[in-house]
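Need tokens for this chain, all 167 residues.
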Amino acid sequence: MIEGLPRFRAFVGLGANLGPARQNLQEALVQLQALPWTSLEGVSSFYVTKPVGTEGPDYLNAVAAVSTSLAPHELLNALLAIELTLGRERPEPLAPRTLDLDLLWMEGAMRHSAALILPHPRMTERAFVQEPLAQLLGQLPPKSTDPIPLPGPERAKLAASQGISLE
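Here are the structure tokens for all 167 residues:
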């Protein structure tokens, strides 16, 4: 780590529903930890979730928190590279996948470009983000720039409607 570089807490959604999903998520976490100027702060439990807006096998999902000196677009590009190393293909939107890494939140940063929207525009609509995010935030030292998950009753309603459970 280079002294003096600013550090930012970012939250990354992980998901997979093809191939060895658990192994792919675990390898993605190893690769996240290995990114330059980045360290893994914590990871939620793994959750089994039904696909949202499409058909296919159930997903395995989690949320990770990293501390990084990478800029948002640099971190996004690193996430896309990790996906490629683990066999991610993009035949169509919402297609089943070996790995999906989404940059959900980065220290409250706001971005709106063709490549990156922060905060992630659908993170409050997805039980597979809200449940693991709430769990993870309960394990981390709080920061004023952390995202605020939906209140418990709203998360429970979302979880019931979308089908999510701990692995």
